[in-house]
């Protein structure tokens, strides 16, 4: 990307071993002349020019007279089917030209003496009639490094060729907006966590161009520092989420997740009553899925962070990092979630999200005393009226000359009065903001103790094994059929139901061992594949599926391992 002329030595190096330069054949350092579709910097100070086969004209009518934005995605040229896709560049205010600008020829950029080096497929492509796309440099940029994407969720397609472009009307859409937000997050990550990677462009320059493009696309609400904002809405403590019928919410959760009704009813009631929640249970009982889905069904964007033993105040609240040689503020997960919540409340997340919830998974894998000290200060009690962002924390963030995007946005909300003052001690946390934690009580050797000072700030809800295997299999079978697109899986489950009932019941009675709905779901998926694709008999397929889905506890706990083996041998042979 951003080619400035053909470099013979680098092109020869790439032909011998592309990985010596980078994982992507089109990156700036590689010369990129081996790809069909390239942007060239050397012709004009104002524009990039890109060539593509005429097939790219097969677009909705009017593209020749319309400006659009190109999200350039690709994977490594040698990657096989199923390899990960990446977003590598954004080109704004692009336009299809009727003919190439005077004096510009793709073959002319390659010295005649080395044209014989080109791959045959490249030569063939260059011999076809080409069209030219022009994009404005000031709102176009490669990303500092490739950004992983999900084709279905991020782009809206199931599969594409080796390279492709996502065309976007300059009116914008939700998928484009989500991509822009992910790009800004990647830039923050690169700036705040220098990894030594070879970057394609300075992160600050990339942000400048992306932000300018977003402003000119009318996405002002999502750009830090934009002087014009929609009217601020004060976040008043004590607000409650009441738009969703509790009965409908409970019914939706029970149709998707294998969990007891009273657990779901208690969770919904606690959230609607203004409480943060800790979900406690064995691994595999659906705690994280339950937390995510209840947030989504209430209309709140779930932001999930998984705790670990290295967490400190820096991870939860934030702190100083070095940006170059200068100190800068980097926000922790709580500040990020709070800012995301405020952005959504201001209408910045589209029609789907009204706010955000912070979900901290495996919270007792962190040392609570080390990581959550100021969490106690922010959430002094269980009622939202007691939740305050301390003045000293805001001033600490303000004391830095440089901030990540979340720190800048938080200060902006404070200065605009979006956060209500709390009697000189700080700023009130919005009453509909929530924190949901999950906590396991198996494998205690690798977990920290969580004291009463932490847990009393939450409603504590135990998530046990489900008590209705019939319903559990119906829900899991429905999910599995949707995932693999094969309704026959339900017939398989029905056939092996007596076997499942015996083995699952016995496994769940083993002390110090977990076999929850998540384990059973994985086991059924593997077992059905072995039965349907490889022709194993149902009983053998079920045993191998269960063995593959088991936790690792039997490997290091000899006594538990013996009990598990005994159950499998007695029930499944």
Concise structural overview:
The protein is α/β, with parallel strands linked by helices and 573 residues long. The protein has helices at 8-16, 120-127, 151-155, 174-192, 203-216, 246-256, 261-272, 287-297, 313-316, 333-345, 368-371, 373-378, 391-398, 405-415, 452-455, 469-484, 489-507, 517-533, 538-549, 553-556, 558-572, and strands spanning 39-40, 47-53, 68-74, 85-97, 130-136, 140-149, 163-169, 277-281, 300-306, 318-323, 326-331, 355-361, 388-390, 402-403, 426-428, 434-440, 459-462.
In total, the number of domains comes to 3
Strand content: 15-25%
Output the CATH topology of the largest domain.
Rossmann fold
Radius of gyration: 27 Å
Number of helices: 21
What structural category do the secondary elements indicate?
Answer: alpha/beta
Largest sheet entry? 7 strands, antiparallel
Task: Flag low-confidence runs.
Answer: 1-7, 18-38, 54-63, 161-166, 168-173, 220-242
The general outline is: globular
Could you estimate the helical fraction of the residues in percent? Answer: 25-40%
Quaternary state reads: single chain
Q: What is the CA-CA span between the terminal residues?
A: 59 Å
Q: What is the typical, i.e. mean, pLDDT? A: 77
Please identify which CATH superfamily of the largest domain we are dealing with.
P-loop containing nucleotide triphosphate hydrolases
Q: What is the CATH architecture term of the largest domain?
A: 3-Layer(aba) Sandwich
Q: What is the CATH C-level name of the largest domain?
A: Alpha Beta
The counted number of beta strands is: 17
């Amino acid at each position: 990307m951003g080619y400035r002329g053909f470099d013979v030595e680098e092109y020869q190096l790439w032909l011998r071993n592309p990985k010596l330069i980078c994982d992507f054949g089109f990156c700036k350092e590689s010369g990129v002349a081996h790809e069909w579709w390239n942007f060239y910097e050397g012709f004009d100070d104002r524009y990039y020019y890109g060539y593509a086969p005429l097939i790219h004209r097969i677009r909705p009518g009017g593209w020749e007279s319309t400006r659009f934005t190109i999200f350039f995605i690709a994977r490594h040229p040698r990657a096989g089917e199923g390899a990960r896709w990446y977003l590598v560049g954004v080109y704004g205010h692009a336009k299809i030209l009727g003919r190439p600008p005077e004096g510009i020829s793709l073959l002319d950029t390659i010295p005649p003496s080395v044209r014989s080096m080109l791959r045959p497929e490249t030569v063939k492509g260059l011999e076809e009639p080409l069209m030219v796309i022009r994009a404005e440099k000031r709102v176009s940029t490669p990303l500092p490094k490739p950004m992983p994407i999900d084709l279905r969720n991020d782009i809206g397609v199931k599969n594409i060729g080796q390279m492709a472009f996502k065309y976007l009307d300059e009116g914008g859409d939700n998928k484009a907006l989500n991509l822009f937000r992910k790009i800004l997050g990647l830039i923050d990550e690169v700036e705040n966590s220098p990894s030594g990677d070879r970057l394609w462009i300075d992160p600050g320059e990339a942000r400048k161009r992306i932000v300018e493009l977003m402003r000119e696309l009318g996405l002002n609400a999502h750009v830090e520092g934009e002087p014009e904002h929609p009217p601020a809405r004060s976040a008043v403590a004590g607000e409650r989420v009441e738009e969703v019928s509790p009965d409908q919410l409970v019914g939706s959760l029970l149709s998707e997740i294998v969990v007891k009704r009273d657990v779901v009813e208690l969770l919904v009631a606690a959230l609607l009553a203004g409480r943060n929640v800790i979900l406690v249970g064995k691994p595999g009982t659906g705690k994280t899925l339950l937390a995510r889905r209840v947030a989504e069904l209430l209309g709140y964007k779930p932001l999930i962070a998984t705790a670990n033993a290295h967490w400190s105040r820096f991870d939860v609240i934030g702190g100083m990092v070095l940006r170059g040689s200068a100190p800068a503020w980097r926000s922790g997960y709580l500040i990020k979630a709070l800012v995301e919540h405020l952005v959504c409340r201001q209408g910045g997340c589209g029609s789907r999200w009204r706010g955000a919830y912070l979900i901290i998974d495996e919270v007792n894998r962190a040392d609570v005393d080390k990581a959550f000290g100021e969490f106690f200060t922010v959430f002094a009690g269980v009622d939202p009226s007691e939740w305050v962002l301390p003045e000293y924390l805001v001033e600490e963030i303000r004391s830095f000359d440089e901030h990540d995007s979340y720190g800048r946005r938080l200060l902006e909300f404070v200065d605009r009065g979006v956060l209500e003052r709390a009697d000189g001690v700080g700023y009130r946390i919005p009453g509909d903001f929530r924190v949901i934690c999950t906590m396991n009580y198996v494998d205690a050797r690798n977990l920290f103790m969580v004291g009463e000072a932490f847990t009393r700030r939450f409603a504590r809800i135990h998530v046990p094994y489900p008590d209705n295997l019939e319903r559990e299999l119906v829900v899991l079978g429905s999910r599995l059929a949707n995932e693999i697109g094969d309704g026959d899986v339900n017939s398989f489950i029905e056939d092996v139901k007596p076997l499942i009932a015996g083995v699952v019941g016995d496994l769940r009675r083993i002390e110090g061992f977990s076999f929850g709905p998540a384990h059973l779901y994985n086991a059924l998926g593997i077992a059905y594949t072995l039965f349907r694709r490889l022709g194993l008999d149902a009983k053998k397929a079920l045993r191998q599926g269960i063995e593959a889905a088991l936790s690792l506890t039997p490997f290091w706990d000899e006594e538990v391992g013996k009990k598990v083996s005994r159950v499998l041998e007695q029930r499944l042979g």
